[in-house]
Amino acid sequence: MAYDPDNIFARILRGTSPCIPVYEDEETLAFMDIMPEAEGHVLVVPKEPAETLFDLSERGAQACIRTTRLIGIAVKKALGKPGVYISQLNGAEAGQTVPHCHFHVIPCTAETTYHPHATVRADDEELREIAARIRACLA
Ligand code: 5GP
């Protein structure tokens, strides 16, 4: 299927829709998920237009993994959680709801209770406060 340039992450990348940013470099952007599965849930997206990981260039995939690792280290420290759950869905059949490739980075413990995927809208002020804590922990 052709890439949809109007999907929400494409609009965030163009700056026509808002996001609460955590990190940006030439190839990737990381921002807070507005419907977090757990506190500190960050999304890492490539700037390259690609619907799934398999549509992404090797360079784009490498950039995503680099940023996902960086964010994983920072959320672990910022939220004081010993575990980090990372997921990445490809295609509606796998549960992907936004058709622009992305990685979910979710700090956790064995006791973490997860909200169901993309259902509970978080408070923007709280997300901004958590984003500031994560940014402060970026190496
Ligand atoms: P997917 O289902 O495609 O793997 O994940 C999409 C993610 O994007 C979900 O976790 C959902 O909560 C998040 N999401 C959906 N719309 C928006 C939005 O407008 N802004 C942000 N920051 N996250 C969104």
UniProtKB/TrEMBL annotation:
Q: Which residues form the active site?
A: 102
Motif Histidine triad motif located where?
Answer: 100-104
**Which GO MF term does the entry hold, naming one?**
catalytic activity
Query: Entry's Gene3D superfamilies?
Result: HIT-like
- The record places domain HIT at 8-115
Which domain of life does this protein belong to?
Bacteria
One of this protein's GO BP terms? nucleotide metabolic process
**One Pfam family this sequence matches:** HIT
Q: Write down the InterPro entries for this protein, in alphabetical order.
A: Histidine_triad_HIT, HIT-like, HIT-like_sf
Q: What's this protein's name?
A: HIT family protein
